[in-house]
């Protein structure tokens, strides 16, 4: 609880300070490997692919690296010293310690007689911020956690499509999945609603070609960057005003519903008191009382659960604020954007919502909503596609 490190060994990338054994300092050689692992993840590679890359580059795995540094082996030694595996990579990608924080109470023992460790859930952890120098910056770490939360699989050809995990169906909310054939040219590769692909009765196809999404997102990003660079003050005011209106509208609706629930719970308390008194004086039979009270108790329990959920949401919403400064910092890194890469895409975009095409006008119209990290939806992020067979 004092924020000191509990483990006897620092995580890979750190070492104990020779002058203060309780302090962690960066082991630059290993830390650079950690940074490369995060870079590769942001670049679209999964843990297995990253492990293969590190093995091919003949980078010592953490266990053998510690051994060569004079430490005792922490786990069973792998088959050879360059044998990285996906669980080790995944663990590195999820370690909060690389942000410069100490995380205690991840596990506990059931009793002093039983040495088997029982894992705690993240909400049971105790995190002490800024206890040592960070290896990974907060923005990169958050991008990686988003990628890990929406884990993607490579195609049968070993590719990791750039937009995988970012495209969502506007109607059912499912992710759009990538599709291609071996002999098919790149211009024909497309995404379609995963829900529709599994059962055509559940949704519609929401088909859109990869090249179209890439072109539209790149053009939109260029416009946003140019606009922000030219009218920064106006952009900040616009985003803050838009976010505040949306949040106020949502908060108002939730508060109204919460007031309705609390009023009904109060009414149910009064009803309980009334039927209890009627039962005591004999106006209401025990059987009838039990049946009525059961119904009212169930209703009150359901309402109380909903009220607790709304109160939790309200608390979270009130803590939120649009982090425009972080978005502006990203924009300033890419003032001369010419091409789209997985790294740039993940830094800017939270998700892309694809609507079903509208063919009522004789042309194929399709709307895409681009939701940005830190600022949400921006007015210029709605795009309508209609040009010939472009989509």
Characterise this structure.
This protein has 391 residues and is α+β, with helices and mostly antiparallel strands. Among the domains are: 136 residues, Hect, E3 ligase catalytic domain fold (Alpha-Beta Complex); 87 residues. The protein contains 11 helices and 13 strands. The chain has a 4-stranded mixed beta sheet with strand order 7-11-12-13. The protein has a 3-stranded antiparallel beta sheet with strand order 8-9-10. It has a two-stranded antiparallel sheet with strand order 1-2. β1 and β2 form a beta hairpin. The relative contact order is 0.09. The C terminus is likely disordered.
Low-pLDDT runs of 5+ residues are 387-391
Shape: globular
Task: Work out the helicity level.
Answer: 40-55%
Q: Give the end-to-end Cα distance, rounded to a whole number of Å.
A: 57 Å
Looking at this protein, list some descriptive labels.
391 residues; alpha+beta; four-stranded mixed beta sheet; three-stranded antiparallel beta sheet; 11 helices; 16% strand; globular; disordered C terminus
Question: What is the topology?
Answer:
Elements lengths: L13 E4 L2 E7 L1 H15 L4 H10 L5 H7 L17 H9 L7 E3 L2 E5 L2 E6 L6 E3 L9 H12 L17 E3 L6 E4 L10 E4 H5 L9 E2 H21 L1 H49 L5 H34 L4 H10 L8 H7 E6 L11 E7 L3 E10 L6
Parallel strand pairs: 7-11
Antiparallel strand pairs: 1-2, 3-6, 4-5, 8-9, 9-10, 11-12, 12-13
TL;DR of this structure?
By secondary structure, this protein is of the alpha+beta class. The protein is about 45% helix and about 15% strand.
């Amino acid at each position: 609880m004092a924020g000191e490190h509990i483990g006897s060994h620092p995580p890979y990338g750190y070492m104990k300070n020779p002058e203060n054994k309780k302090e962690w300092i960066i082991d630059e050689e290993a830390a650079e490997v950690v940074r490369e692992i995060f870079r590769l993840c942001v670049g679209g590679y999964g843990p297995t692919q990253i492990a293969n890359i590190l093995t091919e580059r003949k980078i010592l795995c953490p266990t053998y690296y510690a051994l060569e540094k004079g430490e005792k082996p922490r786990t069973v030694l792998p088959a050879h010293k360059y044998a990285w595996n996906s669980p080790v990579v995944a663990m590195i990608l999820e370690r909060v310690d690389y942000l410069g924080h100490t995380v205690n109470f991840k596990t506990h023992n059931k009793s002093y007689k039983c040495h088997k460790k029982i894992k705690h859930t993240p909400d049971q952890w105790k995190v002490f911020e800024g206890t040592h120098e960070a290896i990974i910056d907060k923005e990169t770490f958050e991008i990686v956690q988003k990628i890990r939360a929406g884990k993607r699989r490579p195609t049968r050809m070993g590719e990791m499509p750039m937009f995988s995990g970012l495209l969502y169906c506007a109607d059912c909310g499912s992710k759009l999945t990538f599709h291609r054939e071996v002999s098919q040219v790149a211009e024909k590769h497309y995404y379609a609603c995963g829900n529709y692909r599994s059962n055509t009765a559940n949704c519609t196809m929401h088909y859109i070609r990869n090249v179209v999404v890439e072109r539209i997102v790149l053009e939109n990003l260029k416009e946003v960057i140019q606009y922000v660079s030219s009218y920064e003050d106006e952009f900040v005011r616009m985003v803050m005003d838009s976010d505040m209106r949306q949040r106020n509208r949502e908060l108002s609706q939730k508060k109204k519903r919460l007031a309705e629930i609390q009023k009904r719970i109060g009414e149910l308390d009064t009803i309980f008191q009334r039927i209890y008194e009627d039962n005591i004086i004999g106006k209401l039979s025990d059987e009838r009382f039990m049946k009525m009270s059961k119904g009212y108790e169930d209703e009150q329990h359901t309402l109380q659960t909903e009220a607790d959920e709304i109160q939790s949401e309200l608390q979270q919403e009130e803590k939120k604020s649009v982090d425009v400064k972080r978005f502006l910092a990203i924009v300033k890194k890419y003032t001369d954007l010419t091409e789209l890469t997985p790294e740039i895409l993940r830094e800017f975009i939270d998700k892309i919502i694809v609507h079903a095409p509208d063919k009522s006008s004789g042309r194929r119209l399709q709307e895409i909503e681009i939701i940005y990290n830190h600022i949400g939806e921006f007015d210029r992020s709605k795009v309508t596609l209609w040009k010939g067979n472009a989509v």
